[in-house]
Design brief:
The complex is a heterodimer of chains A (423) and B (503).
Chain A (H helix, E strand, L loop, with lengths): L3 H4 L6 H12 L1 H23 L1 H12 L4 H23 L3 H10 L3 H30 L7 H18 L4 H30 L3 H22 L36 H18 L1 H11 L1 H6 L4 H28 L13 H11 L4 H25 L4 H24 L18
Helix pairs in contact in A: 2-3, 3-5, 3-17, 4-5, 5-16, 6-7, 7-11, 7-12, 7-14, 7-15, 7-16, 8-9, 8-10, 8-14, 8-15, 9-10, 9-14, 11-12, 15-16, 15-17, 16-17
Chain B lengths: L2 E10 L2 E11 L4 E5 L6 H8 L7 E6 L2 E3 L4 H6 L2 E4 L11 H6 L13 H15 L14 H14 L4 E5 L7 H16 L3 E6 L2 H7 L2 E6 L2 E6 L5 H9 L17 E11 L5 E11 L3 E5 L6 H8 L5 E8 L2 E2 L5 H6 L2 E4 L3 H5 L6 H4 L11 E2 L2 E2 L1 H14 L16 H13 L5 E5 L7 H16 L3 E6 L2 H7 L2 E6 L2 E6 L5 H8 L9
Parallel strand pairs in B: 3-8, 3-9, 6-7, 7-8, 13-20, 13-21, 16-19, 19-20
Antiparallel strand pairs in B: 1-2, 1-4, 4-5, 9-10, 11-12, 11-14, 14-15, 17-18, 21-22
Helix pairs in contact in B: 14-15
The chains are: A mainly alpha (423), B alpha/beta (503).
């Protein structure tokens, strides 16, 4: 009986066997391979687009024999770009040795990594929210709008209510969570009770949230007094997630990273150990069995949206509390739309909190490093976006392919050819 | 056409799926390949049909060796195959499906529907396979869809027809007509390779039976062997086909259905006034041809489908239209008809599946936190008690065989306190060994005083298990009879006659 699976399993061809070893058994290896591929393709793009490289090749085509020189120019450019990207997002070894040697300049040395962590903080939180929804089979495309509402709620409590830090800080954080959760509940309730498809509702709800943001900034007491622009009041110092190393250090990394870390730990616990998380996973993996097991699908849909929206709201709140301390009409809109980046990061992290944490750090580093690269070499920041996209493409496609073809781990996926024979 | 398989060996890594298999199918012979799930029947047929390549051995057609690199070549050599899951286009007509890929055309490549229809009519008349060529396939019952598949194979001039577990999806009547078709094809000189693990069918239709077990041919026997002999060959040990039941004391009614009306997805009242009761210490088996409201009845009882009118009572408690959770908690154990759809989460571990509907119950969780240690202990214990063959409690449910998946569900349901145990098609798709096991578990529960309600479209099962047999037809109970009632009488009730003996 136990050898059934083996019996109906023809031997995988060698390529597929290798593919499987690296795709289903070791996601980490696959992700690393995708990283390498992403940077390799990025390198080719740099060579094909940067003027210095192109000039040198044009020169070579006129004066044969200098191919070596042109190749050198090509690789030098790539090396310079990636060096700038890494030193700009993690740490610059030169500055590090200087700091170790002299004991001074630590603030400057640590700036890149501080920026990366700052950038990653809201990403981790919001992506885990999106990932939990995905695991339950719910597509929350409206995380960005939920984050905006979280930001509005946080700013309201942070600026219009005044009380000591011990009270104000948690209140502001809770306001962010509540704002996002309430915003998420609307599509949740609509789906549970009317069957409205959550993708469409959440996607469109983003625009409702953006409009609501402008409204609150222009027509409510939240607007900065004496301002005609779409600008909010600044929150009280008691509601700020302040920089860990003090304002004077110039390092922006704030206590917000502890919030993000707590979210990671809680999410791991939630999915693995909590009854509600178990219900979520059952529902995501097999809604029919979930129903037959006494899980109420309506309640699960609503609960998922509360959790996912709450985390999105928390991300919006933390973003505001740790960086700007106010919000304006462009809050989390356009390029700053972390709710959409969250979808890709959730896939990159394979919907697991720890994976999502690493994915967020990678995306943050690519963005922060990309800016440094742009400043140092003139290669546009878009290259970072391209690399991000390629990595996600390579990492996410096995997941998508498995989803589409309903393949399961390892041996089982090879049963396709013999399906219907002796089941 | 005489087809001979000689010394076929097929290995998958270190595992030998087919070990030196010899098999001869004579022209006009119905040759039955009998074996449990996983015995290697499928692999062998895949080799014969060109889907897999043998490591050793050869295929001879009329004495000359052939090599197929794909199924198309097998078809050209006159081998046709009817898969267990039909490969038809549901929205096409019968004629369109049969000619698909070999469409007759008129000038300018226009399809010649008339010619296609004529082909079908000719073929159906020749072999007695009546089908309306213009009917749309998705509107046909499964039995007729299967005919279309057979027609399709015959239209490619198949001389050897491979039928892969063809009866698994058929009603008893459809099985009878399929067997008639097989006999008429054989009479016409076609050879048939009939793959199955059902002993009754084998004896009814086969000329020769080849039994394989663990990749080896165990024996080739005539159909005059008894079922017990065949089962012993197939499983490799003595199998007890008759279920032993002790006399028990009939207790209070535990499950009572009164005037139950349930609608299906299209809004039709497919359960139409069912009244039935199950007492503690008895097995009530609901017999009926698939599609007479059994599925909806089970769903309504378990809370998965709304009850239009009437009541369901469990130990005196009204559970009509309560939520699945409330009904589970009230003590209804349920083995759903489609175990992979409703009973299991295939991507989750065996341990998680064993607490699928009790995750919040002590000791598996307290105050919203799961107690993984208790879940593991529960799994270890149940895997041992119910003999679930798995590589470990962390293996996914999807990695288990059908029989072991069913054991997981049965184990889960029987491990919590129950008032009534309801099982829909409890042994569908299972092999003899697993059927024997599941039946024993069901009877044990009855012997211990539980009320058991079995819904099955397998007459054998109904007769073997039931203390009382209720027969359903078109959503109505046409009779409740004793298991000693003749099969003919039960058959009449299944066909809608209410003249059978009532008790």
């Amino acid at each position: 009986m136990t050898d059934l699976a083996t019996e109906t399993t023809p031997p995988p061809p060698r390529l597929r066997r290798i593919w499987h070893r690296y795709s289903s058994t070791s996601p980490i290896v696959l992700t690393l391979l995708a990283l390498i591929l992403g940077f390799a393709i990025g390198a080719i793009i740099i060579m094909l687009t940067s003027p210095a490289v192109l000039d040198s090749w044009r020169h070579t085509s006129h004066h044969l024999g200098d191919i070596g020189g042109s190749i050198k120019v090509s690789f030098d450019n790539v090396a310079a770009a990636y060096r700038a990207m890494i030193t700009g997002s993690v740490i610059d070894p030169k500055l590090l040795f200087h700091s170790i040697g002299t004991g001074r300049g630590w603030d400057q040395t640590m700036t890149p990594i501080s920026e990366t962590l700052t950038y990653a903080t809201p990403l981790v939180i919001i992506s885990i929210g999106v990932g939990i929804a995905f695991q339950t089979g719910i597509f929350n495309i409206g995380a960005n709008g939920q984050a905006v509402i979280g930001g509005i709620a946080g700013t309201t409590v942070g600026s219009l209510i005044h009380c000591p830090t011990v009270l104000h800080l948690p209140l502001t954080i809770l306001a962010g969570i509540a704002g996002g959760a309430v915003c998420g509940l609307v599509p949740g309730v609509l789906k549970a009770y009317t069957g409205a498809h959550e993708v469409i509702v959440t996607l469109m709800f983003n625009y409702v949230c953006y409009a609501f943001l402008i409204y609150t900034l222009i027509s409510t007491p939240l607007q900065q007094p004496g301002q005609g622009n779409d600008l909010s009041r600044t929150i009280d110092s008691t509601a700020i997630l302040s920089p860990i190393f003090g304002v004077k250090s110039g390092l922006r990394v704030s206590y917000g990273i502890f919030v993000a870390a707590a979210v990671v730990v809680l999410a791991v616990w939630f999915l693995k150990r909590s009854s509600l998380g178990f219900d979520f996973r059952i529902t995501g993996a097999n809604p029919n069995a979930a129903r037959a097991s006494g899980i109420n699908p309506k309640w699960i849909v609503i609960a998922v949206f509360a959790v996912s929206g709450g985390l999105a709201g928390l991300a919006g709140g933390v973003q505001m509390m740790s960086t700007t301390h106010y919000i304006d009409g462009g809050f989390l809109i356009g390029n700053a739309g972390i709710g959409f980046t969250a979808i890709t990061i959730a896939l990159l992290g394979r919907l697991q909190p720890i994976g999502i944490m690493w994915g967020s750090l990678l995306f943050a580093a690519l963005n922060v490093g990309g800016r440094a690269m742009q400043a140092a070499t003139g290669i546009p920041l878009d290259l970072a976006t391209i690399i991000q996209s390629i990595i996600v493409l390579f990492v996410a496609s096995p997941v998508l392919i498995k989803e589409i073809y309903r393949l399961r781990e390892g041996a089982q996926s090879f049963q396709m050819a013999t399906k219907g024979w002796s089941s | 056409m005489r087809v001979e398989l000689k010394g076929i060996t097929k290995r998958f890594g270190s595992f030998t799926a087919n070990d030196q298999i010899d098999l001869v199918v004579e022209p006009g012979q119905i040759h039955c390949l009998l074996g449990e799930n996983g015995a290697g029947k499928s692999t062998l047929m895949n080799v014969l049909f060109g889907l897999l390549h043998a490591d050793e051995g050869e295929v001879l057609i009329d004495g000359s060796p052939v090599k197929f690199s794909n199924s198309g070549e097998a078809v050209r050599h006159g081998i046709g195959m009817v898969h267990q899951h039909f490969m038809l286009v549901p929205v096409f007509t019968v004629a369109e499906n049969v000619v698909l890929g070999f469409e007759p055309t008129k000038s300018f490549n226009r399809l010649d529907y008339k010619k296609a229809d004529a082909q079908i009519v000719e073929l159906s008349q020749k072999f007695g396979l009546e089908v309306d060529p213009d009917a749309v396939v998705e509107n046909l019952p499964i039995g007729l869809q299967q005919r279309v598949e057979i027609l399709k194979a015959l239209s490619h001039d198949a001389e050897l027809l491979i039928l892969d577990e063809p009866t698994a999806v058929l009603t008893p009547q459809e099985i009878d007509s399929l067997m008639a078709i097989m006999r008429s094809l054989a009479a016409d000189g076609k050879s048939i390779l009939f793959i199955t693990h059902k002993l009754k069918e084998v004896r009814a239709v086969a000329d020769v039976i080849t039994v394989i077990r663990q990749g080896r041919v165990i024996d080739t026997v005539p159909p005059t062997e008894t079922e017990n002999q065949l089962a012993t060959l197939m499983v490799g040990r003595e199998v007890n086909l008759t279920v032993h039941k002790e006399a028990t004391q009939l207790g209070e009614p535990v499950l009572e259905l009164r005037d139950l009306v349930v609608r299906d997805d299209r809004g039709l009242a497919v359960v139409n006034g069912v009244t039935l009761s199950v007492h503690a210490g008895e097995i009530v088996a609901l017999a009926g041809v698939q599609g007479n409201g059994q599925t909806e009845l089970a769903e309504a009882i378990s809370g998965m489908r709304p009850v239009e009118s009437g009541t369901v009572t469990l130990r005196g408690v009204d559970i009509t239209n309560r939520s699945p959770r409330a009904i589970l908690d009230a003590g209804l154990g349920h083995v759903p008809e489609d175990r992979q759809r409703d009973g299991l989460v295939l991507s989750m571990s065996v341990a998680d599946n064993l607490v699928l509907n009790t995750p919040r119950r002590a000791p598996f969780a307290s105050r919203g936190t799961r107690n993984l240690k208790a879940v593991e202990e529960n799994a270890t214990q149940l895997v041992q008690r119910f003999d679930i063959r798995t590589t470990g409690i962390d293996a996914t449910a999807g990695s288990l065989s059908g029989g072991n998946q069913q054991k997981v569900i049965v184990a889960r349901e029987l491990s919590r306190p129950l008032s009534c145990f309801m099982a829909s098609q409890p042994t569908r798709g299972l092999d003899v060994g697993s059927i024997e096991y599941v039946h024993r578990q069901i009877v044990n529960q009855r012997n211990e005083g539980l009320g058991v309600f079995i819904i099955s479209s397998e007459l054998d099962e109904v007769v073997a298990l039931g203390d009382r047999i209720a027969v359903i037809h078109s959503g109505k109970i046409t009779g409740v009879v004793a298991p000693t009632t003749s099969r003919e009488d039960i058959g009449l009730l299944m066909a809608g006659s209410t003249m059978g003996a009532h008790d």
